[in-house]
Write a structure and sequence with these properties.
Chain B: This is Biotin-independent malonate decarboxylase subunit beta. The complex is a heterodimer of chains A (about 100) and B (about 550). Chain A is of the alpha/beta class and about 100 residues long. Chain A has two helices and six strands. In chain A, strand 5, helix 1 and strand 6 form a beta-alpha-beta unit. In chain B, helix 2 packs parallel to helix 3, helix 5 packs antiparallel against helix 16 and helix 12 packs parallel to helix 14. Classes of the chains: A alpha/beta (about 100), B alpha/beta (about 550).
């Protein structure tokens, strides 16, 4: 298990907290919470040694969707593709109810 | 296209059952109520700790859906997840008691106790069983076992107590998983790589034939929802844990000289005639019984030397108005898997029969006789025929009997001079109002042997031992167990084997104090949350969960 922490300077406010996913094998859960502070991502992952990969996946995501949020991720060995999918799914949940 | 229910995650399963827009989740992922015990063991937690609680309606009837996430840590029950279930069911009980009908539905997808929080798992599961028994006086408690993990371990004991079990053909139900039986009893007892044997034995097709589950429906959301609605409306109750006489009659007819196979069991199940079984009180025999701490203390507390009984592993006697019950080893027992004192089929059903009789006799009395359990159980029995017949029903029968006795007003006191492990402890010990233990390093309290726990949690024994140092709930010794706050008393200065007359008198006094302490107190298991140790550390997360559920109910 490894804990990772990232910050991003993104400014698009989100309207409400959302939760998607399950901490199942090869999967993860993502929680987005609105914040007025700097965007923060706290990750607990079962697969050690992938800090750089996480950084790349998150950077690409925030480049495309610069949301300002406090993000919590509990990951049980998901691939970068699944991570991106869940993050996008969380955004969809935000859109749905607007 | 048909929508599979099994393929859904726990939250989606709960939502799919509830009327559109009626669902409201309690203590959900955003409440930050995660297990404090996983991260210290380097295990990734989940924000809902694998339990989804949802209130809502199903065809306009108020329901509480408890849905276990089988994909997270195998649906194992730990402190937070267990407390969520107990707290919500207790709120449902209170509503029903106040005339507000709400139907609980439990979706089981679970391996039982979460081994990384083993002792919390055992405590929680016994607390779930207690509230289920209480709820059944008001409403049916429907269980759904859709499948993938299925239902195993202590939660299968719970399943046996539920009113009615709906399943699909994708589920398996048993007490000990095949891998654990193989680990404990050898590959010849149960070959865990033989998938056909596993499905034929534990699959719902077989289980429905022999009274372990009540209904097998197709795996579609619509079929499952329809079955749930039907069972709520007809208020079905299988009374699964009230068949001790039937099972004891069945066991009388069992040919123990050869390995039981499925077709012979089916035949036996269909033809057995139920006769009344009365387990007579233990008397002095001519031969010393197999030595154990449990037997030693039972004999000293009751004054019966060389105690012997019609079920050699179950000793029961009355002394000074108190009913003593012990499960003991028997080196020559006809059932090889209970020779070391494990709780097996006969033990569960015999204890249930004894306890139910006591409760029936005292039904109209104001003063109910105290029941004292002498606990020295190294585990439940690990065996193939045990699983085929349904050992979890045997253990459920005794657990249910003890819970009913307590709820009827009998003080139920467990005295622990020996081991208190796993399903054995759930069946014989954990339904007590008060737990008294000797402070002796030889005592093991846990959910699984180290070898099996290491295999199932995919760690080495060294890694497991390292974890036990930091997490009291993982430990195997009584001093760490005390840190959970569940004990009424940890008795210092008396060793497990030191049953001198002076020590016996001391224990008798402590038992009497414990009985006194139950007078005019609620007959539930809340004592465990209210000790100073529980409040300050042992059950802190439990108490937090209870408060949150209360606020959000």
């Amino acid at each position: 298990m490894e804990k990772l922490h990232f910050n991003f300077d993104t400014k698009d406010a989100i309207s409400k907290p959302v939760h998607v996913g399950v901490v199942a094998s090869g999967d993860l859960e993502v929680i987005l919470r609105p914040t007025d502070k700097q965007t923060e991502v706290n990750i607990i992952t079962g697969s050690d040694g992938f800090k750089e990969v996480w950084e790349n996946v998150l950077k690409r995501f925030f480049d495309r969707y610069p949301i300002q949020a406090n993000i919590e991720i509990n990951d049980f060995g998901s691939t970068p593709g699944v991570v991106n999918l869940r993050l996008t799914q969380a955004l969809e949940e935000l859109e749905d109810e607007k | 296209m048909k929508n599979s229910f099994v393929e859904l995650h726990a939250r989606e399963r709960a939502l799919s059952l509830l009327d559109a827009d009626s669902a409201r989740e309690l203590v959900g992922p955003l409440d930050n109520m995660i297990s404090p015990h996983l991260e210290p063991q380097n295990i990734v937690p989940e924000s809902d700790d694998g339990i989804v609680l949802m209130k809502g309606t199903i065809s306009q009837k108020n329901v509480l859906v408890v849905s276990i996430e089988g994909k997270f840590q195998g649906g194992g029950i730990g402190e937070v997840s267990g407390a969520k279930v107990v707290a919500a069911l207790e709120k449902a009980l209170a509503d029903n008691q106040n005339g507000k009908t709400i139907y609980p539905i439990i979706i089981l997808d679970t391996g039982g106790v979460r081994l990384q929080e083993a002792n919390y798992g055992l405590l929680s599961i016994s607390e779930i069983q207690n509230v289920v028994i209480a709820l059944k006086k008001y409403v049916p408690v429907i269980g759904l076992i859709p499948g993938r993990v299925g239902s195993f371990g202590g939660m299968s004991i719970t399943a046996s107590i539920l009113s009615y079990l709906i399943t699909t053909n994708k589920a398996r139900i048993g007490l000990n998983g095949p891998e654990v039986i193989e680990q404990e009893a050898g590959v010849r007892e149960f070959d865990s790589s033989d998938k056909n044997l596993i499905w034929n034995t534990l699959g719902t097709k077989q289980r429905a034939k022999t009274g372990i589950v009540d209904e097998v429906v197709d795996d579609t959301v619509d079929e499952i929802k329809a079955a749930v609605i039907k069972e709520i409306e007809t208020k079905k109750d299988a009374h699964r844990t009230e068949n001790a006489d039937f099972y004891l009659s069945l066991l009388d007819k069992l040919d123990l000289s050869k390995k039981l196979d499925i077709s012979s069991y089916d035949k036996l199940y269909g033809t057995v005639e139920t006769t009344k079984h009365e387990i007579t009180e233990a008397v002095s025999g001519s031969k010393e019984g197999t030595k154990s701490r449990g037997r030693l203390w039972f004999e000293k507390l009751t004054g019966i030397e060389k105690a012997t009984s019609s079920v050699p592993t179950v000793l029961h006697a009355q002394k000074n108005g108190k009913e003593y019950i012990a499960i003991v080893p028997d080196a020559d027992n006809a059932y090889p898997r209970v020779r070391n004192g494990e709780v097996g089929l006969q033990e569960g059903f015999a204890v249930a029969s004894i306890v139910n009789k006591i409760v029936a006799e005292d039904k109209d009395k104001t003063n109910k006789r105290p029941i004292i359990l002498v606990v020295d159980v190294p585990s439940q029995a690990y065996g193939y025929q045990e699983e085929l017949i349904g050992i979890h029903v045997a253990l459920g029968s005794s657990a249910a009997a003890y819970a009913k006795a307590r709820q009827a007003g009998h003080p139920v006191i467990a005295f622990i001079p020996g081991d208190a492990v796993s399903g054995g402890f759930l069946a014989h010990g954990l339904q007590s109002n008060r737990l008294i233990a000797l402070d002796d390093t030889s005592i093991t309290i846990q959910a699984m042997s180290k070898a099996s726990a290491a295999r199932i949690t995919q760690r080495t024994i060294a890694e497991l031992e390292e974890a036990t140092k930091h997490v009291p709930a993982m430990a195997y010794d009584i001093d760490n167990y005390e840190k959970l706050g569940a004990l009424y008393k940890l008795v210092k200065g008396i060793g497990s084997w030191e049953a001198t007359s002076e020590n016996v008198e001391k224990i008798n006094n402590i038992i009497d104090e414990a009985i006194q302490s139950t007078v005019d107190q609620p007959a539930n298991l809340h004592f465990r949350y209210e000790t100073p140790i529980a409040k300050t550390s042992g059950r802190k997360a439990t108490l937090q969960v209870r408060q949150l559920v209360d606020e959000q109910w």
